[in-house]
């Protein structure tokens, strides 16, 4: 909804500025294609935004909507996300936002090595494939292993974890994790979410930057 809110605010601001011809650029393919009526709007949460913007559009002599790739629109994307995170009382002074750009990366990865030469998920994978416990573990550890294994499954010898929204997460060892993060950092892979959200996810799993 943040993209729709930002689009509505931009169109309204242009209208209040007495603009008669407007070109709207947005990095959300969903918003642009729906406003251009190339895609149908079915989400009940988005229909009011769609209707509101289309009503505002009637006040212009000409208004067009254009899609731009998210990587070419990072600043606007960050501001749109920020605007949806808090509300401002119209009677209060609008706070200023100071932004800085660094010449070096803000994040990198740090991960402890697996000292016993076992992969962190080896016991889980072995239990799922063979239904056998590691030798010498206690009954409490067996219960813990069964509980942990319930969220994982093996397909073609690759271990996956079911996320809370049923997205499958491929389990990676230390070396694979380093390669993946390096590729993301180098821009080899595109990401669905914006860079700030990806940075927060990387930090949550224990990676951080040491300048």
UniProtKB/TrEMBL annotation:
Residues 1-81 form the RNase H type-1 domain. InterPro entries: RNaseH-like_sf, RNaseH_domain, RNaseH_sf. This is Uncharacterized protein LOC113784928. It comes from the Eukaryota. One of its GO terms (molecular function) is nucleic acid binding. SUPFAM superfamilies: Ribonuclease H-like (SSF53098). The lineage of its organism: Eukaryota, Viridiplantae, Streptophyta, Embryophyta, Tracheophyta.
